[in-house]
Amino acid sequence: MNSHCETQKIMDEMINNSFLENKSYIANQKRLEIINEDDVEAYVGLKNLTIVDSGLKFVAHKAFLKNTNLQHINFTRNKLTSLSRKHFRHLDLSELILVGNPFTCSCDIMWIKTLQETKSSPETQDLYCLNESSKNIPLANLQIPNCGLPSANLAAPNLTVEEGKSVTLSCSVAGDPVPNLYWDVGNLVSKHMNETSHTQGSLRITNISSDDSGKQISCVAENLVGEDQDSVNLTVHFAPTITFLESPTSDHHWCIPFTVKGNPKPALQWFYNGAILNESKYICTKIHVTNHTEYHGCLQLDNPTHMNNGDYKLVAKNEYGKDEKQISAHFMGWPGIDDGTNPNYPDVIYEDYGTAANDIGDTTNRSNNIPSTDVADNTGREHLSVYAVVVIASVVGFCLLVMLFLLKLARHSKFGMKGFVLFHKIPLDG
């Protein structure tokens, strides 16, 4: 059996002679018998590993622990008599070729048979093993008593819980060989601890965080042949929080952007200068992105004017509580009062311009005593008033021009307008 230094030397030569760092090929290395934990750990980018027609007999359980990018492994025609699935359980392998190895028929290699049976690829390998009579039999026909896949059964209560509460999950596993039980909680934020006794286990989660809503929790049973798991999704109910509310920005439309978290989905209500904001096709709430319990959107305004300047407050509410935030919005200056640079408008300007508000779940006011008006209607009436003023001013200006023209003609008449008298001059007596 070769030494660790000799194996490391072969591995180094393998990488150095490769054209690409993520692809390595070894052939006809009869002295290469063992791959230990630290032989390939430095090659974290390794994707393809091929060792063929060599003397490989043993692979350590953690040999590829740090080679998480491995996708293709080819150990064709080596000296492997056994191989554990623990070598590869953390890898996302698309190919594992083991043809031409003198495997011994045992429960230790039944996982290879199971892998072949569950592979989505129609191509199968002609794998054999030596039984107690030293007879070569196809791995596909291998039957080993008391050697099968395990099972996991997760007995969970209703996993819809309120933020800050606690919950306990129970799980049982079964199989022969007897499987190990462990919990896969992913990136669970909430504090948790587990207890395991033989084939029974429990997981207690305390002070549950709203950040864990939607996360999956799994109970896993694993033995020599393979693994099984049973999973549940955690749903956390919590009061709304407005995590983001900013002044309006202009794109295709004006938008007051916001982000709200809450579960169940919060109802949203807008207020304008203290009055409920009734939404319309000109002013409405848009939700652009939903991420489980988080909602990103904006209050969209089409062509707002100075009539829409003011304070906008958002209220988010569900059965567990509510949150509210307010911002000031300035779209344009008031004609004759503000040039657009001073956001401090006289309070009297806002009289009679309270606006209506929207709630995603309820767009009516019903019994609410807060005054409500429609900004879109006010804006329309304002535009009509402006047009009327412009027309009247034009007519008056035109009339003045005609009068001035006629006066000029009366004083310097060259067209025989003898009967045209604008001013009558009274003669002075004596």
Description:
With about 425 residues, this protein is α/β, with parallel strands linked by helices. The protein is built from 3 helices and 27 strands. The strands form 8 sheets. Strands 11, 18, 19, 20, 23 and 24 form a 6-stranded mixed sheet that branches. Strand 8 and strand 9 form a beta hairpin. The longest helix has about 35 residues. It is elongated. It starts with a helix and ends in a 19-residue tail after the last helix.
Shape designation: elongated
Count of individual helical segments: 3
Specify the helix fraction band.
Answer: 10-25%
Count of DSSP strands: 27
Uncertain segments are: 340-377, 414-426
**N-to-C span:** 152 Å
How would you sum up the major sheet? Answer: 6 strands, mixed
- Following the backbone from N to C, one meets helices and strands in this order, namely HEEEEEEEHEEEEEEEEEEEEEEEEEEEEH
In terms of structural class, how would the helical and strand content be classed?
alpha/beta
Percent in strands: 25-35%
- Nearest-integer average pLDDT: 81
Backbone CA Rg: 41 Å
Brief description of this entry?
One of its GO terms (molecular function) is neurotrophin receptor activity. The chain contains three helices and 27 strands. With 430 residues, the protein is α/β, with parallel strands linked by helices.
SSE topology:
Blueprint (H helix, E strand, L loop, with lengths): L3 H13 L6 E5 L6 E2 L12 E5 L5 E2 L12 E3 L20 E3 L5 E2 L5 H9 L9 E3 L5 E3 L12 E5 L4 E3 L4 E8 L5 E5 L6 E7 L2 E7 L9 E7 L4 E7 L1 E11 L3 E2 L3 E10 L3 E6 L2 E3 L5 E9 L2 E8 L8 E9 L2 E9 L42 E2 L1 H37 L19
Parallel strand pairs: 1-3, 2-4, 3-5, 5-6, 7-8, 11-18, 22-27
Antiparallel strand pairs: 8-9, 10-12, 12-15, 13-16, 14-15, 16-17, 18-20, 19-20, 20-24, 21-25, 23-24, 25-26
